[in-house]
């Protein structure tokens, strides 16, 4: 991690790693937590493989959905790691995404209480990192990680 370029978020999710992985890789489950509530998410494409699409839409009223993320997966290691970027679109075209270009690495590890969950978000320059932090990285990614935990822990409790 480069503190001048990267942001990180870590949590313990009280669910097995396979359940957290499922919440990340099943479109219906991902739609339950990917955007901060009360906004809603629609998963247009989720191809969990290197080069696969990761495309979502967001709605504030449940009627009109606007583009949220058009990204592609760079690396997929089942049950362990997902790496995706919005600097390349789902059809592999270079992008200039708003608010910032980033590459995110999601890492899942076994933990005595469930799953160690870590998201490392890399930026191309210190200004992009600062902008992402100022726009609320910790709050936004923290909120959706809490929502992911609620979905995974709910699935684990069944």
TrEMBL record:
Entry keyword set: Membrane, Transferase, Transmembrane
InterPro entries referenced in this protein's UniProt entry, alphabetically: ASHA1/2-like_C, START-like_dom_sf
Where do the Activator of Hsp90 ATPase homologue 1/2-like C-terminal domain residues begin and end? 14-152
Mind telling me which Pfam families this protein's record contains?
A: AHSA1 (PF08327)
Output this protein's name.
Probable glutathione S-transferase-related transmembrane protein
**Top-level enzyme category:** transferase
Can you tell me which family this protein belongs to?
Belongs to the AHA1 family.
Q: Which organism is it from?
A: Nonomuraea gerenzanensis
Which Enzyme Commission number(s) are on file for it?
2.5.1.18
MF terms from GO for this chain are:
glutathione transferase activity
